[in-house]
TrEMBL record:
InterPro entries: Mrp/NBP35_ATP-bd, NUBPL-like, P-loop_NTPase, YlxH/NBP35. Pfam families: ParA. It comes from Apatococcus fuscideae. One of its GO terms (biological process) is iron-sulfur cluster assembly. The keyword Amino-acid biosynthesis does not apply. One of its GO terms (molecular function) is 4 iron, 4 sulfur cluster binding. Keywords: ATP-binding, Iron, Iron-sulfur, Metal-binding, Nucleotide-binding. One of its GO terms (cellular component) is mitochondrion. This is Iron-sulfur cluster carrier protein. Belongs to the Mrp/NBP35 ATP-binding proteins family.
Amino acid sequence: MSTPASSAQQFRTFLKCPLDLAAAGLRRPAVLLENAVICHRAAPVQSTHAAGIGCSRIDEARVAIASGKGGVGKSTTTANVAVALAKDPQLKIGILDADVFGPSQPRLFGLKGRPEASEAQKMIPLRNHSVQVMSMGFLLEEDAPAVWRGPMVMSAIDTLLQKVEWGALDLLLVDMPPGTGDVQISISQRMSLAGAVIVSTPQDLALIDARKGMAMFQKAGVSVLGMVENMSHYACPSCGHRDDIFGSQGAVAAAADYGIQVLGEVPLNTVIRQTSDDGMPVVLSDPSTPSAEAYMNIAARLKDMLSIDSI
């Protein structure tokens, strides 16, 4: 009697193209990929300008949210901007969490579980707060490290780009991994991005990498739509005293150097940390706070810049 395919074998087969769920020992709708391991090289990917990688339509806007450096609030910004946009019931918003080494969107959206498989044998994104989310974090245990070499990483990225059934979207936000290496360049070239938003703190140390990120997108032919200055300042909740912990107006100066605008300045606030850990973005849990208002203003400006119309 044959034995069920191991989890590693399931994931290896799942990554192959074309996708064959039956050969992987998977049953529709559940796709079980526990303790997943990538063990083969990525298949070559054709240009997306005609085909629209990973999406069932090619006319939705796709915007990368990037930082160049980790720990500056890029993923939190992505989540809150997406949820703010999704408050419009006519808009269909998705997030592709491309940070395979440190996926944050499952926690930020309070999502757990494995993606189901569509009739087209693609993964169906999980959904919460009216936003579709796809992340490598759904395919690995939360505390399991992705100990992968370059070809393995690119194989995972190809899976996220090619094998997700989004349906019709108005906007797909791509939560980019930090840095300016192969993964970032590949995503920029393969997804026909409408533009990129750079997130940074005002600190000079963070802005060094933010500038590198902007330069990378420019070399890849992707427009930088603007910057978000996260943790712009701290306002004491008791007395209202403002403290520029990470410096002042750093993103404003960097944006001016590159001839782009600052989309918003998000103050440092304990509520953001608490709501993020709880999987309830601050734009929903505390919409009247200055931080939530800043995210909502960023979302509104991004919507206007992209001229997003509902389907």
